[in-house]
Write a structure and sequence with these properties.
Blueprint: E1 3-9, E2 19-25, E3 32-36, H1 44-53, E4 61-65, H2 71-74, H3 77-83, E5 88-91, H4 93-100, H5 103-113, H6 115-122, E6 134-136, E7 142-145, E8 148-154, E9 163-167, E10 172-176, H7 204-216, E11 221-224, H8 233-255, H9 263-281, H10 288-315
Parallel strand pairs: 3-4, 4-5, 5-6, 10-11
Antiparallel strand pairs: 1-2, 2-3, 7-8, 8-9, 9-10
């Protein structure tokens, strides 16, 4: 098959937590390849190993695509670009500038994590990419990969600088964080997906519109960065819609909370209760390790909702 895609485990945080997709068109010396999301700098050897396993060399990589600039998706873009000198880096216009000059992203992440944890996760520093190698993609803009065409969709909701990539040839959409998270460790009792509402740009109505837009592509699968291909597109969208509607209700409650102190904890407890009820309703038996896995993201989701609530309270 000339058109194919591989899931490459980026080994970010732990196994099967974040991935890159290696999209290949053609075979042999005439083949072209694209990476969709890159993980961190420490992920780059794994990405190149996958390329070599397919019989390709870095000069055959035409595109490196970042769905958005969050570090688990794009921290390795600069390092990978150095290893693939013929590749052009593609991103949403609002994300592209952070790939050219990642200083602001790095400073913000160091402030959150501290220098030691930052460098353990992302390396000594984020590598900037020359402006000449970075191309911003507008909504619905297409690029060629061999005989295929990839269409870039602006998809707000998780982040204002987020884009998804529609791949009609393989009937899939590479969704970054715009169509939820689907960790293999949480699938033992059946399909379980949930949205990412992490800081700082959560927008519930836009996230719902993004769900509908991805559904309208009519694909038979979607491929989130967290993690791997999911064939249950319609059922996944239904689960995500329920959770996003709950998150919007929770945001409204958080905006009206009497004090700022404790909003993060209030949001986390509400999300924990919501997912406990959902797991029970779906008859999915989560053990302590699975709850720990889920709660890592629930903490981030709660922080994202609380962040928006505080902004709204300041504006009122």
């Amino acid at each position: 098959m000339s058109a194919r895609v591989l899931t490459v485990d980026c080994r970010y945080y732990k196994a099967e937590f974040a991935c890159s997709y290696l999209r290949i068109e053609g075979a042999g010396a005439g083949a072209e390849a694209a990476y969709i999301d890159t993980g961190t700098s420490s992920s780059v050897p794994l990405l190149l190993e996958a390329l070599q396993h397919e019989g390709l060399v870095p000069a055959q990589v035409r595109w490196i695509i970042a769905t958005h600039a969050h570090l688990d998706h794009a921290a390795g873009a600069g390092t990978l670009a150095e290893q693939c000198p013929q590749a052009t880096i593609l991103a949403h216009p609002k994300a592209a500038r952070h790939l050219v000059d990642p200083a602001r992203l790095e400073a913000s992440a160091r402030k959150v994590y501290g220098d030691g944890p930052f460098e353990m996760l992302y390396g000594p520093s984020l590598r900037p990419i020359p402006q000449s190698r970075v191309r911003s993609l507008e909504d619905n803009e297409e690029v060629e990969l061999g005989n295929s065409r990839l269409r870039f969709l602006h998809t707000r909701g998780h982040a204002n600088h987020h884009g998804c990539i529609h791949d009609p040839e393989l009937s899939t959409v590479y969704t970054g964080d715009s169509f939820g998270l689907r960790y293999p460790a949480l699938q033992s009792g059946g399909l379980f997906v949930f949205p990412s509402t992490s800081p700082t740009d959560f927008d519930g109505p836009e996230a719902l519109r993004t769900l509908e837009r991805i559904l309208s592509c009519g694909v038979t699968s979607f491929r989130p960065t967290h993690y791997d291909a999911v064939p249950d597109v319609v059922e996944s969208a239904a689960q995500l819609k329920t959770d996003l509607e709950f998150s919007m209700e929770l945001l409204d409650h958080a905006i009206r909370a009497p004090v700022d102190d404790g909003i993060d904890e209030f949001c986390f407890n509400a999300l924990r209760k919501h997912y406990s009820e959902r797991v029970t309703a779906l008859q999915i038996p989560f053990d302590a390790e699975q709850w720990s896995h889920l709660e890592l993201d629930l903490g981030l989701n709660a922080a994202g909702i609380a962040h928006v609530a505080r902004k709204c309270r300041l504006q009122s």
